[in-house]
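quick one, four chains, predict together pls
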Amino acid sequence: MKSSKPAVPCCPPLLAGKLTPADVVQLAGLFRVLSEPARLQMLSLIAAQSNQEVCACELVESLGLSQPTVSHHLKVMYEAGLLEKERRGTWIYYRIMQDRLAALKEVFS
Amino acid sequence: MKSSKPAVPCCPPLLAGKLTPADVVQLAGLFRVLSEPARLQMLSLIAAQSNQEVCACELVESLGLSQPTVSHHLKVMYEAGLLEKERRGTWIYYRIMQDRLAALKEVFS
DNA sequence: ACCTTATATTGACGGCCATCAATATTCAGG
DNA sequence: CCTGAATATTGATGGCCGTCAATATAAGGT
């Protein structure tokens, strides 16, 4: 199972009306995912590809991190709804969920 | 000293061109500040005030946190350039640095 | 079936940080 | 200069999580 979206809702504007405790916990969780330099670097690397995608192995080479660590970060971002993945043979390609990133803009409106 | 801006630069777009290690460290730091539910709740509370400002003591009452903890969070956000403060008598009033928050939108463009 | 390569999981370790109690500092009023 | 109230600092503690080595799983080719 777990082949499609993890169904993560998003994103109440931060400055319009008091947010509920549930809201802030959820938002904070998203920001925490983005609070890791390695993960931001990954997003930047993916976006810089002409395909707009990258396979995990390339990330292991690009970043100076071990393969398990890269796999961990990818999982975190996938479960946060920031990445989607597609298996093609042995390789797994990751793409950015652009809608979700765009939705994050609304937080600061 | 330290009466004016802590001079925190901001914010390269995440998806346009490979970010440098320095860039991602900086950005990640900002997101980390926002990755705490209590801090988001504070921002939301300040924004919900008609004055657009709030004194520290009010925050201690509103959130269920100790005074030192609230003071700590305020300091973190102030040093991140997210809040400005103004002393009026015994009280210190905090306001949101709206420009800085708006600049964060550009990260997701 | 076997081997190789890619990816995921497990378990352990270390560092960072949110939190609080205790204490210090700052300020206004009398 | 005291006293009381608001805020800041210090030190200690506990939990979370990024990291890696070791291992497991998955997939393709021969």
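Chain A has one domain: 21-108.
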